[in-house]
């Protein structure tokens, strides 16, 4: 935070709920504003997945692991994807068709410039792997989308998570990605006082638990919980952003919730764009509100599954109509 230029009088805190951390940060900031604790806050999600992660040889006491669901929390994410595929009979063909559509939509959106108003260009140092030469490069677009990816090319990719199953692979799973996204939240009167454009309104968010071994189904529990709380239905929602951790859970959530194709991940999802864990929850809001502005639509719903067995969902309103 200090490295970003904020003064040392600014308070900060860290949040971690795996894939939903960015949305949890938004929820926390909004709650503090609603309670009167603060008037302005920045909810930021960031992740450098290429840096790897810390691993503990024995992360839990053996008594904890006597509980089967506690043990299931330690299953590799690829294994949970294969569990979803097998438990709910989601074929590799269905998953590859879902993934191909994610790539197609992301390519179309990027070429049309739909992402431009949500991306802040950054300049970074890049080292040539062959010559070792270092140069400065300004990034103006996400590097994830693989142009020209089709169902046929995805069918040729070898399974990634044997022996757990043979349906998930590098092409129909979210990419290992570095990324960051941020959302500035303010009390409405403060934003008006400062002359800031109000792009959207946070309405509510909620989280729900599911069996850890099939954590990918989380959105199918969190979304109905949130919609019931707000007394609305999916018919009232204009744009839906569901994180594509794996195509298995993407297909399951789409079909179980009966989400219309024209509402779901209109600019592609994490299979094409990447899923930097901490970033996704904020990135979805930035992308979704941008899409609402483009279409002149009103209500955005975001959701993601969460490792260890949860799902989270949030609702936002576009105020640029």
């Amino acid at each position: 935070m200090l490295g970003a230029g904020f003064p040392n009088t600014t308070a900060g805190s860290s949040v971690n709920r795996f894939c939903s951390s960015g949305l949890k940060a938004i929820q926390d900031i909004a709650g503090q504003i609603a309670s009167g604790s603060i008037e302005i806050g920045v909810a930021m999600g960031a992740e450098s997945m290429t840096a790897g992660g810390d691993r503990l040889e024995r992360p839990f006491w053996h008594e904890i692991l006597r509980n089967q669901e506690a043990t299931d929390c330690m299953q590799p994410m690829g294994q949970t994807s294969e569990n979803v595929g097998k438990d709910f009979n989601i074929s590799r063909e269905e998953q590859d068709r879902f993934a191909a559509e994610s790539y197609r939509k992301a390519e179309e959106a990027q070429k049309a410039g739909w992402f431009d108003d949500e991306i802040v260009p950054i300049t970074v140092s890049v080292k040539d792997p062959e010559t070792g030469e270092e140069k400065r490069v300004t990034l103006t677009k996400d590097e994830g989308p693989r142009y020209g990816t089709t169902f046929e090319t995805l069918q040729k990719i070898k399974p990634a998570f044997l022996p757990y199953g043979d349906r998930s692979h590098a092409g129909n799973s979210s990419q290992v990605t570095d990324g960051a996204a941020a959302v500035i939240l303010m009390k409405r009167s403060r934003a008006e006082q400062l002359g800031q454009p109000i792009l959207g309104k946070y309405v509510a968010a909620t989280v729900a638990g599911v069996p850890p071994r099939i954590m990918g189904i989380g959105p199918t529990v969190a979304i109905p919980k949130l919609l019931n709380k707000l007394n609305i239905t999916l018919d009232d929602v204009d744009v839906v952003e569901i994180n594509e951790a794996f195509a298995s859970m993407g297909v399951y959530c789409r079909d179980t919730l009966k989400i219309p194709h024209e509402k779901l991940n209109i600019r592609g999802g994490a299979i094409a764009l990447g899923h930097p864990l901490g970033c996704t929850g904020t990135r979805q809001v930035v992308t979704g509100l941008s899409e609402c502005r483009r279409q002149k639509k009103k209500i955005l719903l975001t959701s993601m599954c969460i490792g260890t067995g949860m799902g989270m969902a949030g609702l936002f309103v576009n105020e640029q109509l």
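Strands lie at 40-48, 122-127, 134-139, 178-186, 200-209, 239-242, 299-306, 310-318. Residues 18-46+69-318 form a domain with the Peroxisomal Thiolase; Chain A, domain 1 fold (CATH 3.40.47.10).
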